[in-house]
Specification:
By secondary structure, the chain is mostly helical. The chain contains 17 helices and no strands. The protein has one domain. About 5% of the residues have low confidence.
C-alpha cells in the first residue's frame, strides 16, 4: 500500500470514528431517556410546518428547507415525519462536526489531531442548535460544507459552495444574510492583501456568494406561486413583536443571553481560541476571523437594539470551538521552558520530553456546556 493510500485510509478511519462518537452522543439522549419525538422548543413547529407543507405546499411555510427535506426523506424511506425530524437533528449535528474537521484539515493536511479535535468540539457545540433550532442548524451545516468547498481554491469548489450555501438559505433566510456577511468580509480581507492568489480567492468567494444569493432568491420566488403562509405565532418572540411589547422582548433577549451564555461555556473556550488565532493562515484564517467579527457585531447589535436574539449569534459562533481546538493543540505541543536554575545545568532531554502537555484538560472544558445542555 502506497503512502497516499495509507494516509487516505487513516483519514477515513478518523472521520468514521468522529462520526460515530458524535452520533452516539446525539442518539444517546433518545435511547437513554426513551424519547420518541424531536427535542427542543421548536420541535413541534417543524412537525407542524412539515404537515402543513404536505397539504398546501412548501409556499405555505416560512422556512421551506427543512420541511422539504423531511417530506422527501419520509416519502423515500417510508418513515413517519416524527422520526425523520428527530433523525435530522442528530444527522445535521454530525455533519457540522465532520465539516469542521474537513475545514481544519484543508488548512493543515498533515495535522489530523487538530482537525479531529476541532470536529469533535464543533460537533458537540452544535448541540445548542440541535436542541430545537433545526433550520439554523441546517444552514450551519451547509455553510461549513460550503466553506470546505471554497478552501479547495478551485472554480468547481466555488460552484459547489454556492449550491450548498444557497440551499441553506432556503432553511433560514435571516441567518443566510449573516453567512453572506461573513463571506463578504472574507473576500474583503483577501482583497486587502493585494496578491494574485488573494485576489483570485476574493473573486471566488464573491462569485460563490452571488451564486448562493441567486439560488436562494430563485427558490423563494418560485414559492410565491403557491398559497401564502398563515399568519400565526410560532414563538413567544413573534407574539411579543406582533402585539408591540418590544420592551418586554428586549428584556427577554437580554435575560436569555445571560442565561444561555453561561450554558455555552464559550468564555472558557475564548482564551484557547485567542491562542489558536495566530496559527491559522490563508482562506481558513480569513474566514474564521470574519466569522468572529460578525459574531461579535451581531451580539452587540442584538443587545443594543433587541431586533435579533443575541444568544442565537453565540449558538451560531462555531468559530470559537474551531479556533479553540487549534489553540489547545498549540499549547499541548508547546516546548517546555528550560529550568531557571543557574547553579546546576539542566540534563539533556529526549525529543518527547521537550514537549509538555500544557493545559492537558483544556479541551475538556468546552464540551461541558454541550453535555449540560443535551
Amino acid at each position: 500500500m502506497t503512502d497516499s493510500a495509507k494516509r487516505t485510509t487513516r483519514e477515513l478511519a478518523g472521520n468514521a470514528g468522529l462520526a460515530l462518537v458524535l452520533l452516539v452522543f446525539f442518539l444517546g439522549l433518545f435511547v437513554v431517556r426513551g424519547f420518541r419525538f424531536p427535542v427542543g422548543p421548536d420541535g413541534p413547529v417543524y412537525l407542524w410546518w412539515t404537515r402543513l407543507a404536505a397539504v398546501d405546499g412548501l409556499a405555505a411555510v416560512e422556512r421551506p428547507g427543512v420541511p422539504g427535506v423531511t417530506l422527501a426523506l419520509a416519502g423515500t424511506l417510508h418513515l413517519p415525519v416524527v422520526a425523520i425530524v428527530a433523525a435530522l437533528q442528530c444527522g445535521l449535528g454530525v455533519s457540522v462536526g465532520l465539516s469542521a474537521a474537513t475545514l481544519l484539515r484543508e488548512m493543515a493536511s498533515r495535522d489530523r489531531a487538530t482537525s479531529l479535535l476541532g470536529g469533535a468540539l464543533t460537533g458537540l457545540f452544535a448541540v445548542h442548535l440541535v436542541s430545537g433550532y433545526l433550520a439554523n442548524l441546517a444552514l450551519a451545516a451547509t455553510f461549513l460544507a460550503g466553506a470546505c468547498a471554497l478552501a479547495l481554491g478551485t472554480r468547481r469548489g466555488a460552484v459547489a459552495a454556492s449550491i450548498l450555501i444557497g440551499a441553506g438559505g432556503l432553511s433560514h433566510p435571516q441567518f443566510f444574510l449573516v453567512a453572506i456577511a461573513i463571506l463578504a468580509l472574507t473576500a474583503g480581507l483577501a482583497r486587502l492583501r493585494n496578491q494574485p492568489e488573494a485576489r483570485s480567492e476574493a473573486r471566488r468567494v464573491v462569485g460563490a456568494s452571488l451564486g448562493a444569493a441567486a439560488l436562494a432568491g430563485v427558490g423563494f420566488l418560485v414559492l410565491l406561486v403557491g398559497p401564502a403562509a398563515p399568519q400565526v405565532d410560532t414563538s413567544r418572540d413573534g407574539f411579543l413583536r406582533r402585539v408591540g411589547l418590544l420592551g418586554t422582548l428586549a428584556h427577554l433577549y437580554r435575560q436569555r443571553f445571560l442565561q444561555h451564555s453561561a450554558r455555552y461555556v464559550e468564555w472558557i473556550s475564548l482564551p484557547l481560541a485567542i491562542a489558536g488565532f495566530g496559527r491559522v493562515r490563508g482562506f481558513v484564517g480569513r474566514f474564521l476571523a470574519s466569522w468572529g467579527i460578525v459574531t461579535a457585531v451581531g451580539v452587540a447589535f442584538g443587545l443594543a437594539t433587541a431586533l435579533l436574539p443575541p444568544d442565537r449569534f453565540l449558538a451560531f459562533g462555531y468559530v470559537v470551538p474551531l479556533l479553540a481546538a487549534v489553540g489547545a493543540m498549540r499549547l499541548w505541543r508547546a516546548p517546555a521552558r528550560p529550568s531557571s536554575s543557574l547553579s546546576t545545568p539542566a540534563p539533556r532531554r529526549s525529543r518527547s520530553s521537550r514537549r509538555r502537555p500544557a493545559t492537558p484538560s483544556a479541551p475538556l472544558f468546552p464540551p461541558t456546556g454541550s453535555a449540560t445542555c443535551w
